[in-house]
Each structure stands twice: as C-alpha cells, then as structure tokens.
Amino acid sequence: METGGCRMGGAEPAGPAMITLEDLDGMPEESPDSAYHSNGSSLEEEAERMEDEEQERLLSYWQSVGRGHQVDVPRDMAEPIQQLTRNNSPQERQSIPFTLIQRKEKLGDLLYEKRQYGKAKWACIKMKEKQYEQSICLGFMKLMRYICEQNSSGLYLGITVPIVTIVHTNESQSEMTQSVTVAYYLPPVLQDEPPHPFDSDIIIEEWPSTIVYSRSFRGITNEDSIMREINLLAEILDSPELCLQDTFIIAGYTNPAAANRHNEIWFLQRP
Predict the structure, then answer these.
(1) What is the pTM of this model?
(2) Which pLDDT value is given to residue 69?
(3) Please, are residues 173 and 246 in contact by the beta-carbon 8 Å criterion?
(4) Phi, psi at residue 94, to the nearest 5°?
C-alpha cells in the first residue's frame, strides 16, 4: 500500500505520533453564539445545516492536528470523526477483560504483570509501510471506519481499549520487521456475531486464550522505543524463553500525540 503524507514526527518535535479519537479531548466546544440560528428555514433544514457545520468543523480540526504530525486526513474520514467525537468520553470506552495472575514488584515499583486474556474475536488489519508510525496511522483510520458504521450492522460499535499492534522482530531481536497488525477488540455484545467489515482489508480473527507478561512504559512508540522496551522486559523476566521470541504486542491506552502517553509491551507465553 502506497502512502504520501502519513509520515509522523517531523524534524525534531516531541516525537512521532499518530492521531486518534483522543486528540479530540482537547477540542473546544462550540459556543452558543457560534451556532447556526434559523432565518425562516424549517427545523429539518436547520438541523441539517448544523450537522454539516459540525462535521466540517471537526474535520478541519483533525486536519489541523494531522498537519502537526505530517498526517493527511482524507475527507472521507469526516463521518467517522464525527461519530467518534459524539461517543468520546471515558465512560463510553470499554476495557478489555483479563485475569491478573501475578504482579512482580521490586522496592515498591511494578516491574510487570502476568495476565490471562480469554479467547476473543478481534478486527485486524495487516500493514507493511516503511515506518511503524505510518502503519499504525493508516491501520487505525481503517479500523475507525469499521467502528463508525462502515460495517454490516450499520451501527457504531463502540471503543475498546487498548488498541493493540502486533509487531515482529528478526531472529536476533535486533530490529523490527515492517509487517505489523493493528487490532481492535470487539465489545462483548458483538463477540458471538461480529459485524462484517465493508473494507476487505479488515479481517475478523478469533485469538486463543493467551497468557501475557505486561510492562507499562511512557512516551512515544516507534521502532527505537519498542526495541528498547522489548530488551528491557526480556532482562526482567525470570524465564523469557517461555515466551515467543519474535512476536510482541504494543498496547496503547492514551493519546499517542501526548508526550507522556500510557503504553504497554506484552510478551506472549508460548502455548
């Protein structure tokens, strides 16, 4: 897949980032004075006009944010952006359920958690861009469309966190490969019969129950920071050989544009 303008980072900013629904958290609300007032038009016309103005305002904001990250936000993202904005509150987001098996601490600091995630269905899209940031940018935008009504149910599906990215390394674990998978956990009410994506690039996969070793880290996610976190967790674990050696997961919980964002690196225990 070719892309132009989805490279994130710039010369020497705070760091590479992608835009997500979280960027809308800082968007100011429209004041009553700026709202459209009817001039003899019908209520239906006024509602349609206000709907269009809101959509244009939100798209313009996202495009402005995107330019700051050197990301091109196409016009066909207007409706998904509007849908996500209307449902963009912490109460609307569902956390992926898991069972905590163990917490490893040292001098009061949490080193890692051992968790078990149950068998579940995920909407997945495989990407292979030149840069990790390009892949997660394009992959997330495609998943946004699926979440926001571009599916066989025609309904907004709801946001679950974290959004995860499967990454791979070479045999020596010295560098990442370009191939990644961006994945969205389907909410529990949709697990039995997931809506079919209109985008043929998105595949519904059922992942088996998996034990993961999870370590939190803050900041940007790019090839360098991910490799650093992989090596760090490998040093901390008592038996890293029990885990897959070339496949890892990056879990993102907060705005990737934030300087102190919340991420996790997951090691996957061998079956």
Answers:
(1) 0.78
(2) 58
(3) yes
(4) -105, 135
